[in-house]
Design goal:
The chain is built from ten helices and no strands. With 214 residues, the chain is mainly alpha-helical.
Length: 214
């Protein structure tokens, strides 16, 4: 398949499941999300190799490819965190193809937790590495863990023109209609920067204003 090139010794899985996932993302997401998701797979797999982790490349690939699908317009009225909408899309995709439930759970968890720092790295490798790939591509966390050559090979396959501005705009568009879903997570920062009048939820005020009398 033409979408199976190699970068830094890493290639997407040569399976029907991976091919179907690639085609679905190609059909439903724009180029920004497609290229970002592919880079997340490559960077996650490279971090897994560097850390000596044994992981299922197919599950890592599905997690990477689906992790931002919940930003799409059809999910903006769901009332759920976009990470959950993305994870549910992956679960439906996998269950429809008879994937075992433990594998489905790993992928769902990897996607649902990919913006929850401090937790995924202690879980299964596929869960840890989806987050590692996202953190590498979006935040630059662990940037120098990989070589310049490795980075260049991945970006040559999946370029990131004006990526910082464009991914922030995609985040803002995807979560602006459901600001309540950002309570306690990093996406509140996005709305605070890009949505005039947004007020983030406050954990302390929530406790103090709860209906408990004491």
């Amino acid at each position: 398949m033409s979408d199976r090139p190699t970068a830094a010794g890493i290639a997407p899985p040569d399976t029907r499941l991976a091919d179907d996932a690639t085609q679905l993302v190609r059909d439903t997401a724009d180029e920004l999300i497609y290229h970002h998701s592919r880079r997340v797979y490559f960077f996650g797999a490279l971090q897994g190799r560097r850390r000596g982790l044994s992981f299922d490349p197919e599950l890592l690939y599905i997690g990477a490819m689906f992790h931002d699908l919940g930003l799409a317009e059809e999910h903006r009225a769901s009332g759920r965190r976009f990470e959950v909408d993305s994870a549910d899309e992956a679960r439906r995709f996998l269950q429809a193809r008879g994937v075992p439930e433990d594998s489905v759970r790993r992928v769902w968890t990897a996607i649902a937790l990919h913006t929850t720092p401090g937790v995924p790295q202690y879980m299964e490798p596929e869960v840890a590495l989806v987050t590692a790939g996202v953190e590498y591509d979006v935040l630059g966390i662990g940037y120098h863990d990989l070589t310049q050559e490795e980075r260049d090979e991945v970006v040559a396959l999946h370029p990131r023109p004006d990526f910082k501005r464009r991914i922030l705009a995609a985040f803002a568009a995807g979560i602006r209609p459901k600001p309540e879903t950002t309570f306690g997570n990093v996406k509140a920062d996005v709305l605070e920067h890009f949505v005039p009048g947004f007020e983030r939820g406050d954990f302390v005020r929530t406790i103090q204003g709860s209906p408990w009398p004491e």
